[in-house]
Amino acid sequence: MIERRTLMKGVAAAGSAVLVAACSGDGDAGPADGGVPAPEAPPKAVLTAEPAANATDVSVRTPVTVTVAEGTLAEVKVTNPDGEELPGGLNPEKTVWTSSEPLGYGKSYTYAAKADGSDGKPVELTGEFATVKPGKEIRATLNPSDDAEVGVGMPVSVKFDAAVKDRKAAQEALKIETSTEVEGAWAWLSDRQCNWRPKEYWPENTEVNVSANLYGVHYGGGNYGKADVTTKFTIGRNQVVKVNTPDHVMKVYRGDSESASYPCSNGKDADPNLNTPNGTVIVMSKEPTAIFDNARYGYTNVKKKWACRISNHGEFIHENEENRGNIGKANTSHGCVNLLEADAKAYFDSALIGDPVEITGATADMPTTSDVMDWLLDWETWKSKSAV
Prior knowledge:
Layout (H helix, E strand, L loop, with lengths): L1 H27 L17 E5 L14 E5 L1 E9 L8 E3 L5 E4 L8 E10 L4 E9 L5 E3 L1 E4 L5 E2 L5 E5 L6 H6 L1 E5 L5 E7 L2 E6 L8 E6 L5 E3 L2 E3 L3 E7 L3 E6 L4 E6 L2 E7 L15 E4 L2 E10 L4 E11 L6 E4 L17 E3 L1 H10 L5 E5 L18 H6 L4
Parallel strand pairs: 8-17, 10-18, 19-27, 25-26
Antiparallel strand pairs: 1-2, 2-5, 3-6, 4-5, 6-7, 9-11, 11-14, 12-15, 13-14, 15-18, 16-17, 19-20, 20-21, 22-27, 23-24, 24-25
């Protein structure tokens, strides 16, 4: 009996030792015992860029942006093929960097960005992209020029040095700002010219700013705008000329009042080809001495003083002392408004480019073939020529 009890006690002791060893092994297991370390958590910050890496035919007007989520940007560099950095800046939160300058045509750009994550871990992003290469860069010009003072009939004219297929895209890049509210509209007079005119004559003293943000605009057919152009000008006093051709008188109005009246001789009434045609035109240019040639009617190199061109059809207001006997009495010119020299000089000195000239009473109408025929179209017809 004693031996049996002793044996059972020993077994119990042995069992107790095994349990202790097992518990000790579970608590101390590590790589030395064949264990695997826990993987490190990935950085929280995520960097992205637009245009994306390896993008091609990127618009030069598309801003480059680098954005970080769950972190802040520490450094962003976008460089052109010459290693020059593209200007740009961060938002107040330092989560978005945006370029501040348009890209160049047909160039490759690289970007490199660094950010610090909200978990303290840094992240980096690199990439490159390429911009669109135009088939042709089309240049545009604006009229009136900077700081000009013009008459109340002056249109704004945008002329392109090649045809524009996508007129809507080009027109949407054009903007007019005025110091006083003015109703007006754009109209395409050809595939190379888009003009803006007010519904009625400009209010005098209006300040006008024109922006043609055409760089990077796709005109269709692989052609793009060459550059942005702007102009600012001022509308002068309200002066309008009125000529009713049978009256042989040219009247000048300032505002609603007649300020001058000059006897004149206009185009021949009997020949529609020689009329001073009906319509509202504008003073297009001023020449102290102009040379007139028309072999069809037998004259060349004829010089006349104080000439104001009023159309591209061939009409001027100018001095013609050789026609003095008919001035104020009969219409005998080849389409121009003839004045006595003193009167021509007085009017010349008073005129601004863009002053309206309203002609009535002739047997023919002014043709709408000139590139300055804005006021020959009624308002509804004008608006119908818009591409937007």
